[in-house]
TrEMBL record:
It is an enzyme of class 3 (hydrolase). It comes from the Bacteria. NCBIfam families: Cterm_S41_CtpZ, prc. Its EC number is 3.4.21.-. One of its GO terms (molecular function) is serine-type peptidase activity. This is Carboxyl-terminal processing protease.
Amino acid sequence: MYPTVNDPSEWLRHRRSHWVKSLCVLILGLFLTLAGPCSATALSDTQQLVVDSWRLVNQGYLDPEHLDSVRWRRQRQKALEKSIVSSEDAYSAIDGMLSALDDPYTRLLRPDDYSALKDSTSGNLSGVGLQLGPSEQSDRVVVISALDGSPASDAELMTGTSILAVDGTSVTDLGLEGTAAALRGDVGTQVVLSIEAADGSADEVTLERRSVDLRPVRTRRLRSDDHTLGYLRITQFTDGVPEQVQQALEELQDKNIEGLVLDLRNNSGGLVSSGLAVADDFLASGTIVETRNRDGIDDAINANPSTLYDGPMLTLVNGGTASASEILAGALQDNERSTLLGHQTFGKGLIQTLTNLSDGSGLAVTVAGYVTPSGHDIQGEGIAPDRQLSDPEPLAPGGDGDRWISEAEQWMEALLEQSPDPAAE
């Protein structure tokens, strides 16, 4: 349910491993138990969860000065002063400790939430299909996108819609992860959302939970009287996406496409490794992204010299294009590989590690930020398209009557008409 470039992943294990190792964005391994503070008595397992969480933040958090400003050592002491007998006691203490950071992306995921997040990045999902993010207003959670074919998509819940309550419980009380957890449930059950649209209108929506076929890669041919184009839509960067994209590009090129429309609308991210791999498919050398860690070090990740597709392309983006998909869009734009069409992207430019804790819960910690090859900081700003497309934005990207696809076809055909004909040389 929760998007992030920052979702858990295993980094590429093949030809891209030399540059992936330089950006360990998401770690899914068991960490050695970290020593707690000196004490006359041994820590219990539940207390150790608190100490481990504190230490992971202390060692990796992006902004050490911010840790100092919130008296991070004192936060550990305050947490351990509480009665911590059960796992829920430990989770409550960790939540309280992390709240001092005022960073919604540095967070504890309870075992069920952590398991659900791992399932979503492997392509399995049941629920209502909403990708959620923090809002500038602390009393609400915002919709980044609704997954294609999900109950939320059928109900036309748009990017920017604020979630105010779930089944009558305010998201102020639930928090981001709690809101995501409340939306999950058994297939066939219903959930009531209190929402506020971007125009300020309030409403209640009842959704029935069901299994969602993510189908993160979708493709087809776009034909006109004079040209045959390829259409490639990526809705989320799950583990199998790089291989699926490779197969899709090979099939499209076998059909002699003259240009490609890449659709990243409502792609809220997923595994950064998958986004980097897809960028590498389109770029011949050049920088994909640069990262900045707590030491201020810039670390550039570069594409390999070879590409899977080097023909003309356009890329569709909107406010639901976030995180790993913004890395891809920014790389294509800054390397002048593709013109971006559509609306401003979401603006998620922070990187988290995600670590297994000893009881099956997980801890996400903001450890770095990323910028596009030209140095543009995406966080809070997003990426402006090269060309704005007409309003209102289509409600069902990639569906029948999608006006933006028609506009992209016209734009591509104009580019092809301007390009010299190799056969005439």
